[in-house]
Write a structure and sequence with these properties.
With 129 residues, the chain is an alpha+beta fold. It is 17% helix and 35% strand. Strand 1 and strand 2 form a beta hairpin. The structure holds iron/sulfur cluster.
């Protein structure tokens, strides 16, 4: 029996409400989208959902203890927990600049985790992570 799933497209502020009809892993129909991006989002969300992951990584000897980071591209949702474990294991040395690669080739995906903030070196005592 076909399954119906309701999704809200997150690609723009309009937020089209879509209805996807699935037969197992096969998509039979997608309704409710106003543009191609919505159709692509609905297809991906029902077959291989992906997300950009944002978090923070510990910084040694920086003026702040952590730097914000994100995956350069969306990763499969099923990998988010392992991605967070990898991020939590990390510690980088200041200075850190926006765009610096913090983790290269995350879990063999070919996707890097990059810094999204600048952390200069602290002029106080060194800190260990
Ligand atoms: S389907 Fe197109 S118009 Fe609708 S929310 Fe998605 S991106 Fe926006």
């Amino acid at each position: 029996m076909p399954e119906k799933r309701k999704l809200v497209c997150i690609n723009c502020p309009i937020g089209c409400l879509m209805e996807v009809t699935l037969d197992g892993d096969t998509i039979n129909s997608v309704k409710g989208y106003k543009c191609k991006r919505g159709l692509e989002y609905a297809r991906a969300e029902c077959t291989n959902p992906v997300r950009i992951v944002t978090s923070t990584v510990k910084v040694r000897n920086g003026c702040l203890p952590v730097v914000p980071v994100k995956t350069e591209k969306p990763i499969p949702k099923r990998m988010i927990l392992d991605c967070m474990k990898e991020i939590n294991r990390c510690c980088v040395k200041a200075p850190v600049k926006i765009g610096d690669i913090i983790v290269e080739n995350l879990l063999g995906t070919g996707i890097n985790i990059v810094a999204t903030g600048n952390i200069p070196v602290s002029d106080k005592e060194q800190t260990a992570c």
